[in-house]
Amino acid sequence: MSMSVVEVRHLAAGYDGREILRDVSLSVSPGDVVAVLGANGSGKSTLIRTILGLVPLSRGEIELFGTPQPRFRQWARIGYVPQRLGAGSGVPATVGEVVASGRLARRGIFRLPGAADRTAVREALTDVGLLDRINDPVATLSGGQQQRTLIARALAGKPDLLVLDEPNAGVDAASQEAFAAALTRFAGNGGTIVLVLHELGPLRPLIGRTVVVHDGRIAHEGPPPEPAGHHAEPDHDHVHPHADEVKAGICEWAPTEGAKSY
Amino acid sequence: MELFAYPFMLRALAGALIIGLAAPALGIYLVQRRLSLIGDGIGHVALTGVGVGLLTNNSPVLTAVVVATIGAVGVELIRERGRTSGDLALALLFYGGIAGGVVLVGLSDDKGNSNLMQYLFGSLITTSPQDIVVIGGLAAAVLAAMLLLRPALFALCNDEEYARVSGLPVRTLNILLAVTTAVTVTIAMRTVGLLLVSALMVVPVAAAQQVTRGFRTTMAAAMLIGLASAGLGVVVSAEADTAPGATTVLMALVAFLGATIGGMIRRNLRRRHNRPPVTTEPPDVVLHG
């Protein structure tokens, strides 16, 4: 049990010979909820992508569940939630079909889906509040709902570790709450979470530890920052008069192609 | 219809139907991955294989399969390396393929335009019984791989990085897709010809997705459209004395137009029937009974 879920030692990585991360060490224990913060371009996404093997490691070592990452094979234990739905090609796919991909790591590629797979898909969609959309094309969903679909896909594999890349970037408030709730349930059941965030937002109560990436290194590590300024005053009632404006901006993320077809 | 009393016409029909069914089953993955034109490029490369076959007195279909496979795997390796110079590398490969093919065919004893045209635009009528066996066997293998591995291939083409993190053998699956593309191109060379091969992989999929909502239904509909286009293409071309390959592709395009217009009408009707339009953002809370 003392074995860490993710162990990173002196990691360096980058693209095309340009080093983005220079020397990063990080340890995530079972049940931890770790937020990786940092400015745009700081390398916070690169960090989790390197941990998952999507970016080649140039120096250092990574262990996943006690196994060196190059030899790690138990991918069913990891649920990955990318920033957005893949290329979004023209071929339609239903929400259920996308979420069913989450079962592949557990089932293997040669076995056809069975009752257990279908149950897991429905459970995962229930968890993010999208079961009623199971037969709808993903292209007709809003940006936030597509993000929830991706979380359901990761949850359907019943992972021990969830890795999320900016799950709340440009997501409407309803979806943010729905997936904050799903993540809280996942953590409550002992799941481990590593997520890249631009800002803590509604996920703040869930987060046990923050790691700030700056200039290719970990600049700060500790509990999430306490609210400061007006927010810290006891009589502050958290009214956000600009909430509407923020919401308006979100519309840009909603798919227009799918919306047009109705 | 009495045309089909001739065995060669029956063979032509059988060959066309087999390709009509198999090509879209592969093509849907290529479309999903935005590689709609890859079949066209591999077709160019296959022509070099035909030239090699004619020049060395081997079966052109066999050498075309080999050369197209080498080409397809090469394209996949270039694609995997990163996209920056991939586009140009692909162009070089494709034009090299067609130029090499034309030169090699010209050098062979069998030279002459009619021979070259046979491979470029198809020559269904000359399908031999052995050809049908080869086409049937290879198409069955392609179909089996595309249908049985659908969940994995769907995940791969939908989101390659997610597939990688799921522990899928991404590279093996990519090479499998490349090899099946080469095989499909080569066997389709007899029906629609190398220049129109890609159409049978892509157009039925484009038609199907005008009216479908899911991947599985799109695949099934595309295979049906491919089958119907191929069948109609052979019949119409026999009656009207037109080129079977091109007629088949035109049939698939008619299906695409029909599906597009049908889809538009259906959406309009739905709107007029006063069904509340599906909003992009449904209620925040959904109760499940």
Automatic annotation (TrEMBL), chain A:
SMART domains in alphabetical order: AAA (SM00382)
Alphabetized CDD domains for the sequence: ABC_Metallic_Cations (cd03235)
Pfam families found in the cross-reference section: ABC_tran
Region annotation (Disordered) ranges: 217-240
ABC transporter domain residues: 6-240
Keyword Transport in annotation: yes
A molecular function GO annotation: ATP hydrolysis activity
Keywords for the protein's UniProt record, in alphabetical order: ATP-binding, Nucleotide-binding, Transport
Compositional bias segments (type: Basic and acidic residues): 228-240
Residue runs in coiled coils: none
The keyword Transport appears for this protein: yes
Gene3D superfamilies the record matches: P-loop containing nucleotide triphosphate hydrolases
PANTHER family: METAL TRANSPORT SYSTEM ATP-BINDING PROTEIN TM_0124-RELATED
Recorded family membership: Belongs to the ABC transporter superfamily.
Designated name of the protein: Metal ABC transporter ATP-binding protein
Source organism of the structure: Actinoplanes aureus
UniProtKB/TrEMBL annotation, chain B:
InterPro entries found in the cross-reference section: ABC_BtuC-like, ABC_TroCD
Pfam families named in the record: ABC-3
Membrane topology field: Multi-pass membrane protein
Entry superkingdom: Bacteria
N-terminal signal peptide: none
Keywords assigned by UniProt, alphabetized: Membrane, Transmembrane, Transmembrane helix, Transport
Similarity comment text for this entry: Belongs to the ABC-3 integral membrane protein family.
Name of the protein in question: Metal ABC transporter permease
Organism: Actinoplanes aureus
Source species taxonomy: Bacteria, Bacillati, Actinomycetota, Actinomycetes, Micromonosporales
